[in-house]
């Protein structure tokens, strides 16, 4: 087959604070020929996840973007050509496809998708590594949510938070409270996702609202945000509370000056725990999580709202959309 043109966004300088257009360049170049063990993938959808911002910094915990290289991003696509026996043209795959329209990659880095279980987009959302699986392990394994718990989720209208709240409900929580920015988001959490209540941190006093909605305290906090909201929750934990640190998006644009919690001594006073995790720590249990998530997804027990933007050239702008909270649910880019 003729090699197509790859359209891609590359990193040309490392941002200080919020990235802008000057940190990136849009490049078009011919796709390189395959060698044994490689496949050519036409990228369809990219998941725009919070970890991407951290890859722009030198020495990132996640595999960093190199200057002149594409931005790391997980995606789904279709195999166009293959020099590996495990994949053939037409196969749908998931993997670290990056900010580009065509990816030449080792076949071993990709997963062939079973579209009989769920459509391809679900493998970035409800069944996705950085969304559904992350929410599952945070709520089930780290938070150990049980019947009768009061659970609070920050960043609740985002991809991970929205699934985490639903899994908490399915795990028996007595009350699930979401924290999000904007009345449209809090309405979405309650009316569409079944949260018991939601707090708009932009217009409401979070601490006062938590006192009102959880007068007996908070058993589990699934935190995607950090900062002031984490401190507000720490003042309201009970004996044996579990604080689950999934992310801290409020800190990702100032990683050289991260602000930790002021109220951490409440952990000792309440014999509570604060535990961080990343999804790959649970790699041995992916099959368990996928089986349960797939069942919930098929039964309609979990809902994954998607917001799909278009055009690989818009990758930087869509990433900033995520960082400013200007999205609902799972943010995807159709390249």
Automatic annotation (TrEMBL):
<dbReference type="InterPro" id="IPR020843">
    <property type="entry name" value="ER"/>
</dbReference>
<dbReference type="GO" id="GO:0016628">
    <property type="term" value="F:oxidoreductase activity, acting on the CH-CH group of donors, NAD or NADP as acceptor"/>
</dbReference>
<dbReference type="InterPro" id="IPR045010">
    <property type="entry name" value="MDR_fam"/>
</dbReference>
<dbReference type="Pfam" id="PF16884">
    <property type="entry name" value="ADH_N_2"/>
</dbReference>
<dbReference type="InterPro" id="IPR041694">
    <property type="entry name" value="ADH_N_2"/>
</dbReference>
<dbReference type="InterPro" id="IPR013149">
    <property type="entry name" value="ADH-like_C"/>
</dbReference>
<feature type="domain" description="Enoyl reductase (ER)">
    <location>
        <begin position="17"/>
        <end position="333"/>
    </location>
</feature>
<keyword id="KW-0560">Oxidoreductase</keyword>
<dbReference type="InterPro" id="IPR011032">
    <property type="entry name" value="GroES-like_sf"/>
</dbReference>
<dbReference type="Pfam" id="PF00107">
    <property type="entry name" value="ADH_zinc_N"/>
</dbReference>
<dbReference type="InterPro" id="IPR036291">
    <property type="entry name" value="NAD(P)-bd_dom_sf"/>
</dbReference>
<protein>
    <submittedName>
        <fullName>Unannotated protein</fullName>
    </submittedName>
</protein>
